[in-house]
Amino acid sequence: MDSEKSESRQLKGIGASSGIAIGQVRITDRRRVAVTEVLVANEEIPGELERFTRAIERAKGELYDLKEQLSSTHGPEHLCVIDAHLMLLDDTMLVGETTQYIERLGINAEGALKRTLGRFKAFFEGVDDEYLRERGGDVETVVERVLRHMVGQKQEPLDNIEGKVIVVAHDLSPADILQIDKAKVMGFITDLGGKTSHSSILARAFEVPAVVGLERATAEVSEGDTLIIDGSTGVVIVNPGAEEFREYLQKKQRYEYVERELLKLRDLPAQTLDGHRMRLKGNVEFIEEVASVHKHGGEGIGLYRTEMLFFNRSTLPDEEEQFEAYSALVKKMAPQPVTIRTLDIGGDKCLTDLDLSDEMNPALGVRAIRLSLRQPEAFKAQLRAILRASAFGEVKLFFPMVSGVAEVRAAKALLEEVKEELRGKHPFDEKVQVGIMIEIPSAVVIADLLAAEVDFFSVGTNDLIQYTLAIDRTNEHLSALFQPLHPAVLRSLKTIVDAAHAAGIDACICGEMAGDPEYLPILLGLGYDELSMNAVSIPRVKKILRRCTVQEAREVALKALSFCTAAEADAYLKGEIAARFSESFD
């Protein structure tokens, strides 16, 4: 380490994949292709169409070659990201709109493709759900690959890097992450990206420390600089001094020790000191995340988001395509259960097949179960695919954004129609459990009525907090008001679990609160039966669970419910955690 080469400085980004990495900077060129839109003569339009088509085919060939190259080192669950990008290259909206821009506007192929990308980006930026919003990055990655072929710009592959380095780039694609050799690449940092981007998800799956969203990392560091990155906090230290280096070396050793100790909990039961069991499961969006659920001791999948099958395309996925995706996931997770959420997207023209008009406020508009019930044939296709997948393992399904009993009964009626259609044609679980998400205030108020209609509740705490407090959780100016311990939220959580247990059904949590160990005593004390979270959070939550009793948790929950403000409840909870469970929060 050459700590004298320049003054130490700190950068702050988004911690995308936990862990501490120390190494030399290796800058790799992943800048966006610079494109200028220009008019072309009528006689040049056929040539532009040909250039576009040729670039698409070259991008496909590149991805097919990469998939073959990686097939010996990665399982199919990881290579499916390349399949997703190949599907995008065949997408009729992406190809069709670009072609129309070239023909109608008389512009060059690069400019037309950039216009199409702009439309995709505008849509995804308006999506409320963080996970879905980040899917726009997949479209941009594919478009950039095509543009590079148009302009003849090649990129250095990451599979031939030498030494022990930290890769610094403007952005990295999922394909880049698949090529990383962990023996050489200690971690990576990027200007762009978010915690739920596909690249970040893969980094966590492969346990590669990463910090993203640094904005100017490529301008702030130089080839050969020494970097320390903390993927948990998002801190990046450039050319650390001797004291900082020693401090983070100790942190790295401590982190790796704690992780090894936590993984020892994988096969131990998720139960309290007095023998009370609580199921801990994983939330997943891609099949490649299943390996992480297994590794961290998840007892199944408590939330499988199906939306990715419906995004980045102009036509709805048919029953067979959905069946292949769902059954592959169920087989990969078997014999542990998989809980599949039906489509939870808005109607703001994400799919032309839906033919819905623009809405002033999509978050309060035609979305989730409302959208599914307005499109019964598409909904039934998804239900058929889910039911058919239940022949390969334990499957539960649930409906999002339910506001009343009428919606539940309408959805269940369609489910019964689908069962009748499948009988004698395809095997499925006749007794598949059906649940609903509780995430809006009306569902909380009538939780007792809803409990009589279903087999389980799953609470989406992210939306429940947002709708209860009228807070846009993506608005940075309101982030301080997004309060999980607000009295209205805690009382809602109690109402939900009490109604569920009175009806003899389970109450589960699948929002961010489930994966935060600090909230475990409250959720356990309120009586929740199951928590579903990001897989890497499972051991930490299990550690707390195994060091307390139900009686202790009930006392904490009851006291937290007595406070008038979120700040009071938070101060109390932090004090109790420090007093009762401090050693568990290492």
Automatic annotation (TrEMBL):
Subcellular location(s) per record: Cytoplasm
Enzyme class name: transferase
One term of GO molecular function: phosphoenolpyruvate-protein phosphotransferase activity
EC number(s) stated in the UniProt entry for this protein: 2.7.3.9
Reaction catalysed by this enzyme: L-histidyl-[protein] + phosphoenolpyruvate = N(pros)-phospho-L-histidyl-[protein] + pyruvate
Location, primary (coarse class): cytoplasm
PROSITE patterns per record: PEP_ENZYMES_2, PEP_ENZYMES_PHOS_SITE
Domain PEP-utilising enzyme C-terminal: 262-548
InterPro entries: PEP-util_enz_mobile_dom (IPR008279), PEP-utilizing_PTS_enzyme (IPR050499), PEP_util_AS (IPR018274), PEP_util_C (IPR000121), PEP_util_CS (IPR023151), PTS_EI (IPR024692), PTS_EI-like (IPR006318), PTS_EIN (IPR008731)
Cofactor: Mg(2+)
The entry's keywords: Cytoplasm, Kinase, Magnesium, Metal-binding, Phosphotransferase system, Sugar transport, Transferase, Transport
Segments forming domain Phosphotransferase system enzyme I N-terminal: 12-135
Annotated ranges, domain PEP-utilising enzyme mobile: 162-234
Family: Belongs to the PEP-utilizing enzyme family.
Role description: General (non sugar-specific) component of the phosphoenolpyruvate-dependent sugar phosphotransferase system (sugar PTS). This major carbohydrate active-transport system catalyzes the phosphorylation of incoming sugar substrates concomitantly with their translocation across the cell membrane. Enzyme I transfers the phosphoryl group from phosphoenolpyruvate (PEP) to the phosphoryl carrier protein (HPr).
Protein name (Swiss-Prot/TrEMBL): Phosphoenolpyruvate-protein phosphotransferase
Source species of the chain: Geomonas diazotrophica
Gene giving rise to this polypeptide: ptsP
